[in-house]
């Protein structure tokens, strides 16, 4: 499939639903070790994406990912706005001349995650969204390399996201607002790691449903 037609509105509404369903919890997570605005920043970005659903449906993958990244970058505030924006803009660049399928997507996603690492000057284990995104990228890359069936890879991706998100609880934050708390950040899950996990799981579930739905 070369166009995002049909898929984007379904994916965006699934993401909006899961974020809305967990909004209070995420607000509390960011309130305890940040400033409490993470979910509203993200909801603003997602609302802006919903408004351009029609346009996205007409675009090929690379320009659609670019448009998503630019929209998140301008509509969201906070550290997460520029980081999620960077993820999609870099994925757009990595998608040029490539078909987005299970063979190519892991490398495309991994390039996006590498750009987030550079932008945030952060690595694994610093209690950020990267503690979800890096394990997800690694799981996808390893499953594609080992020719794991797509459905199994999607379930592995969900497990990697959940494990990554949970791993932030024991970490000391060394990046972002939570780093101001130092050791006192231990014992709390990072808000960006949680929303990243929720979004990854929502996308994987839509794709899994698509695999089992009658045609
Ligand atoms: P702000 O911290 O500016 O209020 P948000 O609340 O929207 O922005 O986003 C906070 C989230 O952004 C954190 O929970 C963390 O996951 C992520 N984050 C913050 N700084 C960095 C960084 N340098 N690298 C990666 N992720 C980061
Ligand atoms: Mg915040």
Automatic annotation (TrEMBL):
Gene3D superfamilies: 1.25.40.340
Keyword annotations of the record: Kinase, Membrane, Transferase, Transmembrane, Transmembrane helix
A GO CC term attached to the entry: cytosol
Source organism (scientific name): marine sediment metagenome
Biological process per Gene Ontology, one example term: glycerol catabolic process
Residues annotated as transmembrane: 68-89
Domain DhaL: 6-205
Record protein name field: DhaL domain-containing protein
Claim: Transcription is one of the keywords in the record: no
Keyword Cytoplasm belongs to the record: no
GO MF annotation list: glycerone kinase activity
